[in-house]
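Re: that backbone. Tokens:
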């Protein structure tokens, strides 16, 4: 059921965005995998077995994403996930990534409480995906609201799916919109 075709890694280190340079550069990393879509071109009423089969791959991708970020696990404080489904598939095939991708990052990070934001779309080869990012422990921490643009060259072909995990360290450079700060997280409910 799982036919892995390619793996793609993207890492960005942000040293400056107007104003003074940050004391520590912000890092963002994403890992994308390209799979053959076993449901391409047809309707399958029960796709849940594929979601279960993706769980080990989700854990491996979470490890790869954190390694690409190049910081200790304790420094990872933002995450997101997403999927691009080739045109012979349907949006629901991209939704298969919710559990394997989200829970993998939360398990790897240990104490991550916030829901992992997600984006998905049906698209052609070379499409971009803006992977939404929020703080790992509180979705309302404004300094971590972000999106990481990911594109796997030449994918997805009509019979492919691209699954993506993204992680970040640190807030946006020069965040200054107020609201809940990371050092004010207190509710431990994943929101505040």
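Recovered sequence:
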């Amino acid at each position: 059921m799982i036919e892995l075709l390619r793996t793609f890694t993207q890492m960005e280190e942000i040293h400056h965005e107007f104003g003074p340079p940050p004391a520590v550069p912000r890092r963002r990393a994403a890992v994308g995998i390209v799979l053959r879509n076993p449901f391409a071109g047809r309707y399958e009423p029960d796709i849940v077995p594929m979601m279960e089969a993706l769980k080990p791959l989700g854990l491996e991708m979470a490890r790869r994403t954190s390694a690409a970020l190049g910081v200790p696990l304790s420094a990872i404080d933002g995450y997101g996930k997403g999927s691009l489904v080739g045109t012979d598939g349907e949006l629901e095939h991209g939704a298969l990534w919710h559990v394997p991708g989200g829970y993998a990052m939360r398990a790897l990070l240990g104490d991550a409480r916030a829901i992992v934001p997600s984006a998905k779309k049906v698209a052609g080869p070379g499409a971009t995906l803006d992977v939404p990012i929020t703080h790992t422990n509180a979705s309302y921490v404004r300094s971590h609201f972000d999106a990481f643009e990911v594109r796997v060259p030449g994918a997805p072909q009509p019979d492919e799916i691209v699954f993506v995990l993204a992680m970040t360290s640190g807030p946006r450079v020069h965040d200054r919109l107020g609201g809940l700060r990371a050092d004010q997280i207190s509710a431990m409910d994943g929101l505040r």
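The chain has three helices and seven strands. Helices lie at 48-69, 91-95, 98-109.
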